[in-house]
Amino acid sequence: MFLWGEINLAKPNDLAENGASENGIQFVPTTKPIITSFSATNSTVAFSKSDGTSYFLRRQRDQDGIVTFSETKSVKCKHVVASSSGDSILLLLSRDGSVVYVELGASAIPRSLQNFIKKRIIQVACGDQHSIVLTEDGQALSWGSNARGQLGLTLPETSVVPSPTPVAALSGVPLVQVTAGGAHTLALSVSGTVFGWGQNDAGQLGLGDTTDKSTPVTVECLNLKKTVSISCGERHTAVLTKGGVVLTFGSGGCGQLGHNSLLNELTPRVVAELWGAAVTQVSCGSNHTMALVGPTKKIYSFGRGEEGQLGNRLTTDCSVPLPVLLPHDDRSIQQIFAGGNQSVALRSFSQEPEKAHPGIITVLDMDTIDFWLSKCQNAKSWCKIRKQIEDIFSSTSSLNASFLDRSVDKHYRTSPRSSGLDLVLLSTALAKLATKAKVLQKVETVVRDCLLPSLTGQPVGFEGLRVYYLLVELLQVLVRDNFGEMLSVRVADAFLSLHQDRLEVLVRLWSWTPDFFRSAVETFCKASRKLLSSLDVDYREQADFFMKTAGVLQRLHSASSSGSWRLAESVFHVTTVTNTIEMFEQLFLSCNSILQYYPWFLPELNDEEQRTLIKRDYYLSILLPLVKYPCILPVECKLKLWKYHLNIATLQPGYIEFTINRATVQQDTFQSLRTSSHDPKLKLAVKFNEEYDMHLGGVVMEFFHLLAKELQKAEPQILEKNDDGVAWFSRNVAQLTDEFFLLGTLCGMALYNQCLMNIPFPLALFKKLLGLKPTLDDLMELSPTVAQSFKDLLDYEEKTVEDLQLDFGGDAEDLDLLPNGELIQVTKDNRQKYVDLQVDMVFSRSVEHQFKEFERGFLRGCPSPEWRMFLPDQLMTLLKGEEVFNWDDLRQHAKYQGCTSNDEVIKNFWIVFAEFSVEQKKDFLIFISGTDRNPKLRSSTIMIKINLSCYQEPELYYPEAVTCCWTLNLPNYSNIQTLRQKLLHAVECCDTFGLQ
User: Fold this and answer.
1) How far apart are CA 842 and CA 789, in angstroms?
2) What is the pLDDT of residues 536-557, one digit of tens each?
3) C-alpha span between 289 and 231 (Å, rounded)
4) 485-520 burial, b if ≥16 CB within 10 A, otherwise e?
5) Is the per-residue pLDDT at 941 higher than 80?
6) Which helix (H) or strand (E) holds 290?
7) How far is residue 364 from each of residues 361, 427, 430, 444, 470, measured CA to CA in Å?
8) Which of 65-79, 371-385, 478-492 has the highest mean pLDDT?
9) Which of 256, 493, 772, 808 could cross-link with 818 by S-S, CB 3.0 to 4.6 Å?
10) What are the tens digits of pLDDT across the range 11-68?
């Protein structure tokens, strides 16, 4: 062993024999017992020997500034393979994974750390006043002073933690190294991610700032660098990559960063002098750094040299790496240590020292799975297998490291685009486990009871999210094997506790493996279907469980929809919702039948009748909240739920009453809204002057039909139309605040009253109402020519975009797209931003006031917020209805009363209807329903009822319509000519006499 710096461990005759004192390097012969570990700080030096004895000395400085060391004290501890010392504590790690700690006081009594930590420990590290250890399952535990946040715990920074406490933020990350500086701490994951926390006044955490961190933060600059080891000095840090590159950061005042500078570095910077040198080890003292080059076994050092710790004959600081001048060209160096103001180099031996614990966390591999499957029926082996299952599947870190894609180091590429997992291996392993129900059931129990409760809602870094891959795959296996019902609920809880930004990161990761994301969605859909189909009024928790899995699907849908990649809506649908709604409807009819006879005497109902009423209320309590999870609902289910909510909302007595002249429908309506206060939750009733009394249903439908036509030609024009008839807010009448508010109010009222308001708004309006941004495709609907020019710009390749001489300014009427936009030229690099800003200008900035007032009115007119469950195109159809093109459906779905489809008068009716032009057919729909469009809320197809009215002189009567129930009262005309004449007159004049 070679040693240089403040302390002298060599005997005088050793120095004389080897001549090592010439370079300030001491030589300690490698006779047994040999040194197996070394550590030092500014105040202590500790080392262990293979005979089971560990030694430590205290550093002292007298009044003259002379440094001396106290008498060597010894501690007995067998098979020590690593040690670490702080100002007041010494940690000794044994080969078996046990740790002894010694408080460096007068007594120095060794104590076992296993009293606090039951698991095997693979690494130890001490800062000045804090300690941290790493267990075999990849969990870090820290204790001591937290004055600078160096413990990584969510505790006051002034607190002192007396015993090892898990660093919860890293509980799901598979760590392979922990290291401590003076008051800062770093950890390294199996995939090369570096985390830092604690003191950061010199940038020693590598985060680009000088702010202390009390919880672990990812050192982003080191991502994808394949970091394999870290070492901390007092206020600086060095990292080593798999390719042998050394990067340093933090305090540089003594040159300890090796950048030929005394400046601090806030982010990791490559030590240029060591570039290409294939460094295999790096170690930091308090203010100096050493690096071992593997092929040549040369040692380089830099930093503080006052005490001779650089080993280069100098006692001055050095800011670039220089070779350590060993007594001769010794190529047997195997390991280097730097600590405090000391440096040590260990040689290789013919008699090998105690081998260190490999420092690799426990993982699940295929050999272990094969052992479980082959021996699980053996009682003696099963005890061992159970323990192994518990150890591995209770640890997120162990599982996280179990299925890494190690081919060409792919797991080092863990990022927003790569999970670092071998998904084929993961799927294969879990499918193999599923072949033995006994093993799989034990796995399920451990995951449910141990693993899931340990998950945090906001894991640090990308690696902390990898366990969710395993949970999805495991849940898929369990659901497929028809057990694991409670696990699906617990997994749902874990996903729901995941912070939204973490979930979005996870979904983005999944988006690069679409099959896996689809599998995740389908797994939760299957679990939801299973839970929904087993609803029981006597087991009401089942409904809560279903809401959790539905909540996961909604969160996955939201995260997916916010990105550039998304699944089809139908993939999220839980189809059994349809059956649940049908069951409720049957119960509803049964209850209506019961209450018809017992409206006031419910206590007299028999047990079965009371249970039917209870089941109806139970199912309704499940169905109504489903609007919070719209992604799981097919549109037919949404329509029914919307209707249920509206019927409940409008149960209160009273109406909003409008009395309107047909000739002035828009002015009268606006005047009524301006001059009368009303409760927006009441239903609307309309009466046309000089016609029948106040009515609901078809008359209200007709009212909105007429109003929609008038609003599109009203003066002043608050709406502008393009050549295709698509309407948008007028940009030049923003001062007409009241009109835009009233327009929005009427659209909201139409939706709330289950009527249609067919103003030809583009889909973009409904996106904006739902909080979504319109896109270039939406502009294609409103301004096809302009939109096409923007698409051409994005595809423009023949010449440089700069040749088009476009800028980010506005025209004479527009705002600039960007401040001083006329000075910013459009280029290939920023053209997408230019197009996005142009789209935003059309749909948002140029009509910001108009839309804001419209939205305010819409929310007042429709006070039931459940409309937000619809997608933009669904909401548009709900408000505007659909054009009816397949007129044969009217005949196919028609119902008859007092007649049949074979009666002569009915045959004549359909002959006449077939003769009608498209406009006449639309007029017929207005006559019978109040609108010429198909209201999706009422039925997927238009269903009319024809009631034959028998008169002695039918020629004296015209057909009549009951618009609220789409019924045609058709007189029993004797011939087709009379029927044609009377029906045409009724249809063409319906706007004037406004029948019910």
Assistant:
1) 14
2) 888 888 899 999 999 999 988 9
3) 9
4) eebbbbbbbbbbebeeebbbbbbbbbbebeebbebb
5) no
6) strand 288-293
7) 10, 13, 11, 15, 12
8) 371-385
9) 808
10) 555 544 444 455 678 877 766 667 778 888 877 888 888 777 878 787 776 666 666 6
Secondary structure of 437-504 as H, E, C letters: HHHHHHHHHHHHHHHHHHCCCCCCCCHHHCHHHHHHHHHHHHHHCCCCHHHHHHHHHHHHHCCHHHHH
Chain-centroid distance of CA 691 in Å reads 58
Which of the residues 450, 591, 964, 989 is marked catalytic?
964
Measured distance CA(86)–CA(91) in Å, rounded? 9
**Sole residue written with tokens 């023949």:** 798
150-154: long-range contacts, CB 8 A cutoff, minimum separation 24: 150/180, 150/183, 150/184, 150/185, 150/197, 150/198, 150/199, 151/185, 151/198, 152/185, 152/197, 152/198, 152/214, 152/215, 152/216, 153/214, 153/215, 154/214, 154/215
Q: What six digits make up the tokens of 603?
A: 């206590």
Tokens of residue 425, six digits: 């291996």
Scanning the structure block, which residue is given the tokens 């179990």? 402
Residue 383 falls in the annotated catalytic set? no
Instruction: Please tell me the distance from the alpha carbon of residue 142 to that of residue 129, in angstroms, as a whole number.
Output: 11
Given this model, what pLDDT does residue 144 score? 93
The region of weakest confidence among 110-119, 243-252, 631-640, 947-956 is: 110-119
Instruction: Give backbone dihedrals phi and psi of 140, rounded to 5 degrees, phi first.
Output: -95, 140
Query: In whole angstroms, what is the distance from residue 673 CA to residue 38 CA?
Result: 86
Give the list of residues 6+ apart from residue 217 with CB closer than 8 angstroms, or none: 195, 196, 197, 205, 207, 460
Q: Which residue has the higher pLDDT, 629 or 697?
A: 629
